[in-house]
TrEMBL record:
Name of encoding gene: rsmH
Region listing for Disordered, in residue ranges: 289-311
Lineage: Bacteria, Bacillati, Bacillota, Clostridia, Thermoanaerobacterales
Keyword rRNA processing annotated: yes
InterPro entries found in the cross-reference section: RsmH, SAM-dep_MeTrfase_MraW_recog, SAM-dependent_MTases_sf
Name of the protein described by the UniProt record: Ribosomal RNA small subunit methyltransferase H
EC nos: 2.1.1.199
List of residues binding S-adenosyl-L-methionine: 33-35, 51, 78, 99, 106
Location (main, coarse): cytoplasm
Record-linked Gene3D superfamilies: Putative methyltransferase TM0872, insert domain, Vaccinia Virus protein VP39
Amino acid sequence: MEFSHVPVLLYETIDLLKIKDGGIYVDATLGGGGHSEEILKRANCRVIGLDQDDDALAYALKRLTSFGDRFIALKGNFRQIRKVVYQLGIDAVDGVLMDLGVSSFQLDNPEKGFSYNQDGPLDMRMDSKNPKTAADVVNTYSEKELISIFYEYGEERYAPQIARAIVKRREKKPFTTTLELAEEIIRAVPAKARREKHPAKRVFQALRIEVNDELGSLEEGLVGAVELLKPGGRIVVITFHSLEDRLVKKFFRREENPCVCPKDFPVCVCGKKPRLKIITKKPIIPGPQEVEKNRRSHSAKLRAAEKLSFA
Ligand SMILES: C[S@@+](CC[C@H](N)C(=O)[O-])C[C@H]1O[C@@H](n2cnc3c(N)ncnc32)[C@H](O)[C@@H]1O
């Protein structure tokens, strides 16, 4: 299958990273290498590209081979960003980029099991070594657990109806494919919900987040990234749904203003020092032209912060 992915908010991202000669940058979500390529073109710098998907790594390696040893591709989860970079003998970097979620290549490849429009195995693992698939979640989690992940990770209002239908159906035959599940969800929701977005959209998002522990990885990845940054180094994060964006916003705010002393204390006694300065007071979003050219960019939000010199 042809690898196709249009990088989102490309020039905004590269400008915010302040790419410079001699700099070292981590593209923690390498994907098709679109952002990495632009970083490498911008200055005589180095890029460490990280991805947990073998197919993405293979494609990006081929695409960026002309940059020689300025580009290194590594397999790994960005929750271990520090460990992976330290293993290269590098103890600090000038910038980190996280362009979250899955690429168009992953979404459009039915074999990966992310699509509710095309049939494929109910998989959804970005890392094929991950032992848990979406089928495992759907066929083994209790009804209560399914309701909870559909509510929490999918913000799905019909979570109880959908979980009930899944549990009833799997008693007869476990789910194995994406369309089996999508069709069951369509049957489970009221008719009016079938007229708006695809009724399976939110449940598929929830399952993907659960299978890949996306929010847990993000929390750990952000902590690791900040520790890895040099003073003055920047972190840029592009999110695609409100759960991710909220997490990044809160993390940046906590790092900018970490004091936990009661408000009426005249001076800070908790000793927590700020480590970041937020660069984007409001998130940057794609303009209408970008959204028109690339529909998948419509929900993107970019936030950036800089590591403080004394942090
Ligand atoms: C939106 S795509 C990135 C696209 C890329 N910026 C480009 O221009 O082609 C996200 C990529 O990050 C990878 N990914 C998502 N979460 C990850 C994680 N926790 N650790 C490593 N890679 C991750 C996915 O496998 C996917 O290839």
